[in-house]
Amino acid sequence: MEGLLRITNRKPLGPFPTFGSAHLLLAFITIGQKGSVGRHALASNSGLGEGAIRTVIKRLREEGLAKVGSAGCRLTPSGKRVYATLAGRLSPALAVRYSDLTMGAHQVAVVVRKGGAKVTSGIEQRDSAIKVGAAGATTYIIRESRFTIPGGSSDCEHDYPSGVWDVLRKGLRPKEGDSVILCGAALPILANLGAVAAAATLL
């Protein structure tokens, strides 16, 4: 993971790129999930323009994580190994119907396996999501099979009744010590990007 996120920290040769580590990570995840994806579709799924996605692909290729062929962009064997490690830590985004548990008309949730140990107040995850265009993000830690908030509720299902809890349990199957991030935004792509940005702070 460190090598993957380090790509965007390299000094660019030209103007500063219009993407950050969250965009690159989301593009990498998209390639891994789809197996093969064209540049236009990858740009759309990552919330980037054609120029920026070319730079993302170039950097992934330079790191030996992706290759481009007639069928589109694919992961290399090395990229597949990195993706397998990432997929073991970070779940696919789960679309959630609007709830009042976080801000934003479009909401998604992800689970970061064993991510609870890295959560302090949840502010870092929220701020990371907001920086990439999300409206907000709420981070929960699973403790004694309960959704808890750092420095807040020790049983969110009891304190904040909602049908979303059942959706999160069934859709994400969080375990003890996991962190669950619920992110919302005005657009689905921004909710996905915000969730990835927030999750990246715990990887």
Describe the structure.
With 203 residues, this protein is an alpha+beta fold. The protein has 2 domains: 2-88, Arc Repressor Mutant, subunit A (Orthogonal Bundle), CATH 1.10.10; 90-200, Gyrase A, domain 2 (2-Layer Sandwich). Helices cover 43% and strands 18% of the residues. The protein is built from 9 helices and 7 strands; from the N terminus they run H-H-H-H-E-E-H-E-E-H-E-E-H-H-E-H. A 5-stranded antiparallel sheet has the order 3-4-7-5-6, with helices on both faces. A hairpin with a 2-residue loop joins strand 1 and strand 2. Helix 2 crosses helix 3 and helix 3 (39-46) crosses helix 4.
For this structure, what is the CATH homologous superfamily of the largest domain? GAD-like domain
First-last Cα distance: 7 Å
Total strands: the figure is 7
CATH architecture descriptor text of the largest domain? 2-Layer Sandwich
Number of helices: 9
Task: Assign the CATH topology of the largest domain.
Answer: Gyrase A, domain 2
Which class do the helix and strand fractions yield? Answer: alpha+beta
Under CATH at level 1, the class of the largest domain stands as Alpha Beta
- Strands side by side in the biggest sheet: 3-4-7-5-6
The H/E string reads: HHHHEEHEEHEEHHEH
Mean pLDDT score, rounded?
91
Domain module tally? 2
In one word, what is the shape?
globular
Q: The biggest beta sheet, please?
A: 5 strands, antiparallel
User: Fraction of residues in helices?
Assistant: 40-55%
| Strand composition percent | 15-25%
Q: Taking Cα atoms only, what radius of gyration do you get, to the nearest Å?
A: 17 Å
- Report the uncertain regions: 11-16
